[in-house]
Amino acid sequence: MYKSAMLGCGGRARAHADAYRFVNGGKLAAICDMNTELLHAFGDDFGISARYTELDEMLEKEKPDVLHIVTAPVLRGSNERIRYPLMKQASDHGVPAAIVEKPIAVESEDWKQISGLSKETKTKFVVNTQLNFHPQNFELKRDVADGRIGDIKFIDASARSTPVDQGPHVLQLVSSYIDNSRPVRVLGQISGREQLDSAQPSPQYAAARVQYENGLHVSVAFGTAIAPTASDDATVYFHKRVFVVGTKGFVHWRFSSWERATPENGYEGGPLNYGQQDVVAQGNLTEAVFNWLDDESKVHPTHLEQSLAEFNLLLGIYYSGITNEVIELPFEPPDGLMDSLRAKL
What we know:
Elements: E1 2-7, H1 11-18, E2 26-32, H2 36-46, E3 50-52, H3 55-62, E4 66-69, H4 83-92, E5 97-100, H5 108-118, E6 124-127, H6 135-145, E7 152-159, H7 163-177, E8 183-191, E9 205-212, E10 217-222, E11 241-246, E12 250-254, E13 257-262, E14 266-271, H8 274-294, H9 304-323, E15 327-328, H10 337-344
Parallel strand pairs: 1-2, 1-4, 2-3, 4-5, 5-6, 7-10
Antiparallel strand pairs: 7-11, 8-9, 8-15, 9-10, 11-12, 12-13, 13-14
Helix pairs in contact: 4-5, 5-9, 7-9
């Protein structure tokens, strides 16, 4: 039984903690947050007595096997990027594994810092893009892997929130259907400056045509102006989707419904309860971390290097939109990319 600890006690952390109902390999034993009101409410609700306001103290005393880093990418009330320093703390303390909330980065500079860390750390970092683990998504991925829709010919994926907010989910969904093949080039377009000075700076809209190393071409779109709706809910976050077209049929996963067409069974589809699916998915993602700790060959599908490649693709979309050029991937994003976006948009 592995020992887990949580950094951050906000709403998203509660979803991480609730998912331990579906986890067999570990137990959440300690929590940390600078906000003592959040800290104690969380501890009381989940029955956790080991409570800390300093991360170093918690890591030193508790020595967790897995650390959940469930914080925003910037420090509350400032513009300070905190993904890298928190991950570096975990690495320096020798934490065996850590689950980091998405996005893994927000711009070129922190992506480069975390990329450097990935090459030297012994900590098994994974990114919390949990859609990969939704039960219905698992089933559709098995259909594709088993050849029930034939050979994949094209993928269309989208989300109606901003590229940096929901793009990591969408790009990881694409990766999950093609055995984590890496992107090799992209032509992208961007628009809208409203979110460039937010806590998660990003163009408002983006669209791209991506080629992967396996030869597959993928279309992605982000933002309310261009991405299709995926449910009846008006909330912008509820519209993630991935549509995989094969030579014999297709599968289509959406936030609150699914579709499939195969030669054997024809057209099938139905509704999904996202909340019910998501808590199981969060548990599956966490359990997969314990499995990786058990067995080096069971590499987590959202491991850090894979997630950094997907975020490099997102930065490539931005840079293609700025330069109006096809970007070969992976690429070294220039510093000051957000300033370039402000000038462009």
